[in-house]
Amino acid sequence: MMINNGAHIIFGTGPVGLAVMHELKRRGVQDIRMVNRSGRVQGADRGDIQVIGGDASDAFQTAHICQGASVVYHCAQPGYMNWPKQFPTLTNAIMQGAAAANAKLVYADNLYMYGHVDGPITESLPHKAKGHKGVTRAVMAKQLLDAHKAGKVRTAIGRASDFFGPGVLQSFMGERVFGFALKGKPADVLGHIDMPHTYTYIEDFARGLVTLGQEDRALGEAWHIPSAETVTTRQLLSLLFQEIGSEPKIRATSAKIVSLMSLFSPIMKEMKEIMYEFEQPFVVDHSKFTNAFGPMQTTSHQEAIRRTLSWYRSVVK
């Protein structure tokens, strides 16, 4: 596969941005620049990775940072409770930076915009989200695709389900699952754990995003990034405790409890909006991606859990 000449710019240095950086390195990309406010990134402190300090919500700064770019990866996001106020401005500024450089823009998205769905989740579904996080995601996706149609920027959107993996702490399958389990505490999850639920390993998410960045056929559309086979949350947790070598300990918080707690907890109010994901089957269809670009080698759940536990053991005390 051809590697785009020019710089590959990654806005956002959280777990998704770092995973994209590692995937670009794996594919032989030489000029990689990561962008955050501090200009420092743990895990990207090698001489072959440039880390730039800047405000990604400032279009003047993003235009300067993106000079010479061939592909821009939008992996940045504000705090979970600040999406409606800050996310659209951030996305617009990154879009303007990519447009100024005539670079491809690959946006790392999730699935909130679809809202409550009966049956497999496909890219052709309407955006019916009612909560503010889902509406915000829908508005940004429309803005990006409309800009592509208008010839302002070449863009592709890659969407993943709830993800986990090295570096992932703030996730439904993050520290309160892997970190707690390693400490002998019950894994803390949401909803009905015997419902099928697609989970995405973060390295697979990055692999798919970089593929979109290298495929002109991806432009102008949204794509579901391939994940390993859909299993129930209980099955995934069973693999986790099996790898640790202990009996499963699981604490599942029901929608009713989340609703009650949302009355006095802002974060639980945020959780309430997306509880439908964990109360019914949540199965993501990625056949559009594989039909267009061929089968993507996804990481088995067992191997993904093994790698994730290795990372948690190395950094979480």
TrEMBL record:
InterPro entries: Epimerase_deHydtase, Lipid_A_modif_metabolic_enz, NAD(P)-bd_dom_sf
Alphabetical list of Gene3D superfamilies matching this protein: NAD(P)-binding Rossmann-like Domain
Domain NAD-dependent epimerase/dehydratase: 12-218
PANTHER family membership: BIFUNCTIONAL POLYMYXIN RESISTANCE PROTEIN ARNA (PTHR43245), UDP-D-APIOSE_UDP-D-XYLOSE SYNTHASE 2 (PTHR43245:SF13)
Protein name as it appears in the record: SDR family oxidoreductase
Native source species: Paenibacillus hexagrammi
